[in-house]
Amino acid sequence: MTTITTTDRRRWQYAALDVLGTITADAAELPPLTWHVATTAQLQGEPDSGAPADRLATLKQWSRHLDIDLTERPGPDGVVTYNGHTEHTAKNGKSVKIGLYLRFWPDPDEEYIPDVDSPRDPIELEERLAAEADENDDER
Fold first, then answer.
1. Could you tell me which residue, 113 or 39, shows the higher pLDDT?
2. Residue 85: per-residue pLDDT
3. How wide is the angle at C-alpha 25 spanned by C-alphas 22 and 27, nearest 5°?
4. H/E element, 138
5. Would you call 80 helix, strand, or coil by DSSP?
6. What's the maximum distance between 2 C-alpha atoms anywhere in the chain?
7. Which domain of life is it from (predicted)?
8. pTM, to two decimals
9. H or E element: which one contains 65?
10. What CA–CA distance (Å, rounded) separates 51 from 120?
11. What is the signed CA dihedral for 106, 109, 113, 118, rounded to 10 degrees?
């Protein structure tokens, strides 16, 4: 069993910071996101506070910029969750997972129209995620 050291975690975090610098350098026209940097070579971006429609528009702009397919999941409590991910390689060769995430309650004064491209059926969603995982395995 390999022991993960503090040095490993720092190296992974530095890789994530390197990728964050790269993906934001050419995104000056996009609204900023709040970024979470993990010690496991992962980044998670989430739109700041604001109206749900504005936050969703920001998330979709970033998903196009990063070529991330978003999955929409309406919950039984009315909360809608969007998420998606991709990977980029840092200068040190480490693969960094980049995730986008948004969870919100739709504005009660506006009609909520679900994203028609996003799977609703849990089995369909599971099949789509499995297909994406297979694609990622084939690319490696």
1. 39
2. 96
3. 115
4. helix 122-139
5. strand
6. 55
7. Bacteria
8. 0.74
9. helix 52-66
10. 24
11. -10
Spatial strand order in the sheet of 42-47: 33-37, 42-47, 95-104, 80-89, 71-74
Mean pLDDT of 3-14: 94
Measured CA to CA in angstroms, residue 53 lies from 37, 100, 130, 140 at distances of: 26, 16, 30, 37
- Beta carbons of 63 and 86 less than 8 angstroms apart: no
With H, G, I as helix, E, B as strand and everything else as coil, classify residue 13: helix
Integer Cα distance of 44 and 108 in angstroms: 28
Are 83 and 29 contacting, i.e. CB atoms less than 8 angstroms apart? no
Bigger pLDDT: 75 or 96? 96
**Dihedral of alpha carbons 127, 128, 130, 134, sign:** positive
| Range 19-29 average pLDDT | 95
For residues 54 and 62, give the distance between their C-alpha atoms in angstroms, rounded to a whole number.
12
Alpha-carbon span 52 to 47, nearest angstrom:
10
Mean model confidence pLDDT for the chain: 84
Between 106 and 60, residue with greater pLDDT: 60
